[in-house]
Design goal:
PP1_regulatory_subunit_3, Immunoglobulin-like, 4-stranded antiparallel sheet, glycogen binding, single chain, 42% strand, PPR3E phosphatase, 6-stranded antiparallel sheet, globular, 153 residues, mainly beta, protein phosphatase 1 binding, CBM21_dom_sf
Amino acid sequence: PPPLLEPLFPPQPGASPGFAERVRQHKVRLEWVRAEPAGLRGAVRVLNLAYEKAVSVRYTLNRWASCAEVPAAYQPAGPADGLTDRFAFLLPLGAAAAAAEPALEFAVRYRVAGAEYWDNNDGANYRLRGRQRLPPAGGPPQDPDSTAWIHFI
């Protein structure tokens, strides 16, 4: 089975205390991510500074030797606070994530009213590492002493 991507950061920053204030202060913040078979799915919260805005996610699978960028889509059923908007994204990792030791890094870009804001996890980028899925265990659990010469009853 393909490896799972394991975030090296809390996968739901939007659930942490003070999240709304961080969005107001920095204009853009990652809300949550989830590794799926199709790739990495997530949501971003941005401060609603103008009607026209663009949110995208720039990512790499090879430590920035090359990178790709995908647009995030506006979610009309977003937060009811009237101050922020939510955008959703999917990073299609495909065969690259099946590498022996996949690693993913990304940052979020928010362009609005002639300005550009980034959320790069306070300069560290959002990083995920690959971890092999364990195959389902078949049969009864193994006795750790099954290879011992003597078994006591």
